[in-house]
Design goal:
Blueprint (H helix, E strand, L loop, with lengths): L1 E10 L2 E10 L10 E7 L4 E4 L1 H9 L3 E2 L1 H9 L10
Parallel strand pairs: 1-5
Antiparallel strand pairs: 1-2, 2-3, 3-4
InterPro entries: Ribosomal_bS16 (IPR000307), Ribosomal_bS16_CS (IPR020592), Ribosomal_bS16_dom_sf (IPR023803)
Family: Belongs to the bacterial ribosomal protein bS16 family.
GO molecular function: structural constituent of ribosome
């Protein structure tokens, strides 16, 4: 199973997170299938590769809670969702 989750980068006390598609059995710093964006909590910047994220979500990838919140904040799920 594939998940969209955060992978920690950056230096000590200055974390930057990559949003990656990764196998659920891999550890946090493990090898990812593809990088689909990044999130900088210090500068509050987000970059999302929308076609890649849509591809993995259509294939059944599940975002973690934090990644889901980041995508929701970027209004990723606004269109076409009728729950």
């Amino acid at each position: 199973m594939v998940k969209l989750r955060l992978k920690r980068c950056g230096r000590k006390q200055r974390a930057i997170y990559r949003i990656v598609a990764i196998d659920v059995r891999s550890r946090r710093e493990g090898r990812d299938l593809r990088k689909v964006g990044f999130y900088d909590p210090i500068k509050n910047q987000t970059f999302l590769n929308v076609p890649a994220i849509l591809y993995f979500l259509e294939k059944g990838a599940q975002p973690t809670g934090t990644v889901y919140d980041i995508l929701k904040k970027a209004e990723f799920f606004k269109e076409g969702t009728s729950n």
